[in-house]
Amino acid sequence: MTCAGNEKIRFFHNPDYEKIHKRSFCDPNKPFPQMIMIPFFRKATQIVPNCNLYEKHKTSLAMMVFYQQWAENIGDDNLSVRNMLEDVMIEWDINKKTVKKAYNLKGEKVTNVRVNGLARGGNYTWIWAGHFNKISETSLMHELIHLSLRAKNGHGDADHEGNKHEGWTREHTALIIKMKKILRIFNI
Ligand SMILES: [Zn+2]
């Protein structure tokens, strides 16, 4: 018996990679930043400035919450978002960055602005780790929406709800709020 549609909600785990993931852990005695594999996602990695930001299982859980919500609310029929997550690289940084130009959520252009996160190329995203030691209070969910839109449409829709690029809708903005609520329930 086959179950059509089962594929897209399959739990992110492949035992073939278990050994590799067990060997990949943060070592406080080694120089930073360190690159660590994110468990349950085939080739996903994170670059961390210390071993608390963030523990790999917390990042992994946050990504699972993201995907469950994306699949349920937006859909991922061709698995492009799932494949992106399996191959994502997340860089956590204790400092913010300043960029020459960006767009706010409404699509208005802002210049020389301090940013909490960037998703500007491929499956890579840079994220400010925040003051609260909680992934829910970072822009990870926001940046993963950009990466998912890029995986789906070929570009991440830099101007969000603005009209210059298409992809990002108010539904995506609302979804981030919902995802963050769930992360807070998990206390991550
Ligand atoms: Zn954005």
Number of domains: 1
The low-confidence runs, each spanning 5 or more residues with pLDDT under 50, are none
Number of separate strands: 7
Mean pLDDT over the residues: 91
Give the proportion of residues in helices: 25-40%
Strand content: 15-25%
Number of helices: 5
Radius of gyration: 16 Å
Strand order of the largest sheet: 1-2-3-7-6
How would you classify the quaternary structure?
single chain
Shape, per Cα inertia axes: globular
Taking the alpha carbons of the first and last residues, their distance comes to 38 Å
> What ions, cofactors and ligands are bound?
zinc ion
Q: What structural class do you assign from the helix and strand content?
A: alpha/beta
Most strands sheet: 5 strands, mixed
Task: Annotate the secondary structure layout.
Blueprint: H1 18-23, E1 34-37, E2 45-48, H2 56-73, H3 80-86, E3 89-93, E4 97-103, E5 109-115, E6 117-121, E7 124-128, H4 140-153, H5 170-185
Parallel strand pairs: 2-3, 3-7
Antiparallel strand pairs: 1-2, 4-5, 6-7
Can you offer a commentary on this structure?
The protein is α/β, with parallel strands linked by helices and 188 residues long. It has one domain. It contains five helices and seven strands, in the order αββααβββββαα. It has helices at 18-23, 56-73, 80-86, 140-153, 170-185, and strands spanning 34-37, 45-48, 89-93, 97-103, 109-115, 117-121, 124-128. Strands 1-2-3-7-6 form a five-stranded mixed β-sheet, covered by helices on one side. It has a two-stranded antiparallel sheet with strand order 4-5. The longest helix has 18 residues, at 56-73. The radius of gyration is 16 Å and the shape is globular. The model has no long low-confidence stretch (mean pLDDT 91). It binds zinc ion. Zinc ion binds next to helix 4.
